[in-house]
């Protein structure tokens, strides 16, 4: 039997529940900081993560050929998700913005990666041939949050995945678009994932407070 004094709860020191998406101001700040540092890889990772809304497991396994051809960087990226609710689901597509494509061009020009190579790799001879792991991706994200003076304990990799679909939904009310961006088979999964009902309840509370 474990004594009460030695037992440690699984969520001690953690924020439990859905991790919030980044706000537009937070996105702009992190981009600015990475540009100032000339962190070409990190800026490309950050921008690609936001535009695609891919899970971390899919993002780290992108190959150069997924985002580029010999003629240049693609506008549309298409992948088959590693984890999906429906094994027969169609591939998920994402559009890369002009800013993201420019950051990828700069990163690929500096690294001279062949098309068959992993897109995002570690830095230094020891890691340069392996794709980033999800734990390495989290450490990168945590470092960006700290640079922006945001508390990393409040966020997770799902914060990156939620950011763009949540922004789209907040701006347009188009839940179907958010569903397609996330590659969810069910719109109910999307509603739960981005917390639309909770967000709407909080907005109603804001407008109709006592």
UniProtKB/TrEMBL annotation:
Gene3D superfamilies in UniProt: Intergrase catalytic core
UniProt keyword annotation of Ribonucleoprotein present: no
InterPro entries: DNA_brk_join_enz (IPR011010), Integrase-like_cat_sf (IPR013762), Integrase_catalytic (IPR002104), Tyrosine_recombinase_XerCD (IPR050090)
Coiled coil region boundaries: none
Domain Tyr recombinase: residue ranges: 17-206
Keyword list, A-Z: DNA integration, DNA recombination
Listed name of the protein: Tyrosine-type recombinase/integrase
Organism of provenance: Pseudogemmobacter faecipullorum
């Amino acid at each position: 039997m474990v004594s009460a004094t030695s037992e440690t709860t699984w969520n001690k020191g953690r924020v439990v529940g859905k991790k919030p998406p980044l706000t537009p101001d937070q996105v702009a700040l992190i981009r600015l900081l990475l540009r100032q540092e000339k962190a070409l890889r990190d800026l490309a990772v950050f921008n690609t993560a936001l535009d695609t809304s891919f899970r971390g497991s899919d993002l780290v396994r992108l190959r150069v050929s997924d985002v580029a051809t010999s003629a240049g960087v693609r506008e549309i990226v298409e992948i088959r998700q590693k984890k999906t609710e429906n094994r027969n689901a169609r591939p998920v597509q994402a559009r890369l913005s002009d800013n993201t494509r420019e950051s990828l061009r700069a990163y690929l020009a500096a690294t001279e990666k062949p098309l068959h190579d992993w897109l995002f790799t570690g830095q230094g001879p020891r890691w340069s041939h392996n794709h980033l792991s999800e734990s390495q991706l989290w450490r990168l994200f945590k470092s960006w949050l700290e640079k922006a003076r945001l508390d990393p304990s409040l966020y997770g990799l799902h914060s990156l995945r939620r950011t763009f679909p949540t922004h789209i939904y907040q701006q347009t009310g188009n839940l179907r678009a958010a569903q397609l961006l996330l590659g969810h088979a069910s719109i109910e999964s999307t509603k739960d994932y981005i917390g639309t009902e909770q967000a709407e309840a909080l907005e109603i509370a804001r407008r109709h407070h006592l």
